[in-house]
């Protein structure tokens, strides 16, 4: 299958600091591909190089079969982009924002108005078409930015942290709209530090930290192969923690401690539990493993650190 984005040994240097360190990846048409990791991992920098906002320092990067170093203007004309920052025009209404953006793509007035009406319905903002931007909630603004990015009907949509700052209900609504776009054949590239978001949307993903790719694959496969299906999470005092670690040495389970919380990873958490039942923990949870557990296992720290 052909690639829609191809990167090899991609490097970005800011003020003599290498913030993206020679990463390679490829993205195929029709998939949702995620760049995952904590703030400062290099995700946004990679995304900005893909949509030609930030120049590549070295390495290869092609988007839609075009070299970003040579054909950036044409690439920009073919993409839909939702940046991390809100850059809607505050002096225009919701509808006028879409019409104005359509002019960048040389859409006729009739076509721009038709598409604007379709997109407002798609993102659930028809009733807000005459509202000014300051009258919208954060979730409405993000949905409007997604609508705006689709005015040119791009085959490739780039989203940088699309649901940051939204409440769970608003986030879920955005996810559903993105899934609909994917079903319609739009290729989506997503950067996020929300691991639940990645699990819900992404066909494949790379987990990044400090400018490097730690691991790549299908989210559920990565969790199953690297962590296992379950994780035991417990909160304990130092004596309880020491006792638990001693008992875990009798098993093949791996574990990581962060403060007073111990995370235990095994292919199946149940064999570990009988070793722990007689210790009086402050909290013990046996739950499904997640991408956050994978990051913790690979780096020894949580996404929030």
Structural class comes to: alpha/beta
Query: In what range is the share of β-strand residues?
Result: 25-35%
What is the number of helical segments per DSSP (H or I, 4+ residues)?
Answer: 10
Major sheet: arrangement of strands: 6-7-8-3-9-10
**Could you state the CATH homologous superfamily of the largest domain?**
P-loop containing nucleotide triphosphate hydrolases
Biggest β-sheet description:
6 strands, mixed
The overall average pLDDT, rounded, is 92
Number of self-contained structural domains: 2
Series of H and E elements? EEEHEEHEHHHEHEHEEHEHEEEH
Helical fraction equals 25-40%
The tally of strands reads: 14
Would you identify the CATH architecture of the largest domain? 3-Layer(aba) Sandwich
Whole-angstrom Rg = 22 Å
**Name of the top-level CATH class of the largest domain:** Alpha Beta
CATH topology of the largest domain: Rossmann fold
**Distance separating the two termini:** 38 Å
Contiguous low-pLDDT stretches (5 residues minimum) are none
Name the shape in a single word: globular
Structure description:
The chain is of the alpha/beta class. It has two domains: 5-218, P-loop containing nucleotide triphosphate hydrolases (Rossmann fold); 228-288, Alpha-Beta Plaits, CATH 3.30.70.1150. It contains ten helices and 14 strands. It has helices at 43-50, 72-78, 94-103, 109-122, 138-149, 168-183, 195-201, 219-226, 238-248, 291-299, and strands at 5-14, 17-27, 32-36, 58-63, 66-67, 79-82, 156-160, 187-192, 204-209, 212-217, 230-235, 254-258, 261-266, 283-288. The strands form three sheets. Strands 6-7-8-3-9-10 form a six-stranded mixed β-sheet, sandwiched between helices. It has a four-stranded antiparallel β-sheet with strand order 2-1-4-5, covered by helices on one side. Strand 7, helix 6 and strand 8 (187-192) form a beta-alpha-beta unit. Helix 3 crosses helix 4 and helix 8 (219-226) crosses helix 10 (291-299). The protein starts with a strand and ends in a 6-residue tail after the last helix. The mean pLDDT is 92.
């Amino acid at each position: 299958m052909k690639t829609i984005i191809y990167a090899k040994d991609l490097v970005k240097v800011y003020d003599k600091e290498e913030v993206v360190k020679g990463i390679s990846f490829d993205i195929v048409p029709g998939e949702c591909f995620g760049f995952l990791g904590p703030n400062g991992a290099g995700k946004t920098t990679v995304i900005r190089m893909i949509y030609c906002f930030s120049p590549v320092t070295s390495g290869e990067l092609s988007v839609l079969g075009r070299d970003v170093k040579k054909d950036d203007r044409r690439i920009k004309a073919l993409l839909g982009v939702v940046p991390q920052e809100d850059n809607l025009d505050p002096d225009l209404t919701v509808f006028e924002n879409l019409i104005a953006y359509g002019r960048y793509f040389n859409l006729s007035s009739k076509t721009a108005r038709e598409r604007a009406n379709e997109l407002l319905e798609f993102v659930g903002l028809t009733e807000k078409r005459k509202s000014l931007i300051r009258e919208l909630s954060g979730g409405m603004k993000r949905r409007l930015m997604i609508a705006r990015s689709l005015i040119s009907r791009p085959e490739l949509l780039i989203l940088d942290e699309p649901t940051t700052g939204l409440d769970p209900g608003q986030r879920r609504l955005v996810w559903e709209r993105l899934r609909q776009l994917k079903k319609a054949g739009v290729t989506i590239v997503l950067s996020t530090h929300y691991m639940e978001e990645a699990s819900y949307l992404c066909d494949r993903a790379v987990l990044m930290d400090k400018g490097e790719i730690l691991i790549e694959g299908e989210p559920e496969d990565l969790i199953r192969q690297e962590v296992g299906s379950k994780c035991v999470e417990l909160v304990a005092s130092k004596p309880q923690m020491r006792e638990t670690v001693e008992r875990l040495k009798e098993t093949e389970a791996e574990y990581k401690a962060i403060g007073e919380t111990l995370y235990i990873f095994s292919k199946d958490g149940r064999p570990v539990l009988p070793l722990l039942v007689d210790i009086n923990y402050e909290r013990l949870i046996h739950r499904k493993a997640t991408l956050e557990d994978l990051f913790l296992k690979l780096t020894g720290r949580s996404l929030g650190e």
